[in-house]
Hints:
The protein has helices spanning 9-21, 28-47, 52-63, 66-76, 78-117, 121-148, 154-157, 160-183, 189-230. By secondary structure, the protein is mostly helical. Residues 227-231 have low confidence and may be disordered.
Amino acid sequence: xxxxxxxxxxxxxxxxxxxxxxxxxxxxxxxxxxxxxxxxxxxxxxxxxxxxxxxxxxxxxxxxxxxxxxxxxxxxxxxxxxxxxxxxxxxxxxxxxxxxxxxxxxxxxxxxxxxxxxxxxxxxxxxxxxxxxxxxxxxxxxxxxxxxxxxxxxxxxxxxxxxxxxxxxxxxxxxxxxxxxxxxxxxxxxxxxxxxxxxxxxxxxxxxxxxxxxxxxxxxxxxxxxxxxxx
Length: 231
């Protein structure tokens, strides 16, 4: 006799809630309300003698499929729909700004540290480039490992108050470090100029990389949607 994995009601409800949360029309309160109705329906069906899996399936059908619920709540949550559409773009912009401000700060710090340890102008150029490349590789490897292990918590990384705090603090530290560099007589103008040039090229290349990834992701998702529609 074939062994069948025990049906996990809680896990399946969480999957159902996750599918609902991906729709911009739905709020957390809406989803919690629907979950309450779903549980009531399941209890009623189980009292009639149905098993847990059957009760969940019928209860979901009674409440409505995702498209129906999205359309229904979209009429009520018009303002929320617009806000939820804007927030992901806002988070993306803030995340990019945070990364750029951190690279600016690290570039200034590399110049200060290099001057204190006696690194000459030629080697400083390579050191600054190396730091920027290392930062990019470290972040890429970290993000890939988290994604591969399904442990990447994007909500923490894209929390708006957190990103704004990172940007403000990095901007302030960058301002004071730039002020220190320009007022200190131990830093050459050419050193600071080369550093800023490297940083500008790096920001340009990084921006092009992000744009390329965005276009590829957009067209892949668009093609997948066409395949699903045709099926």
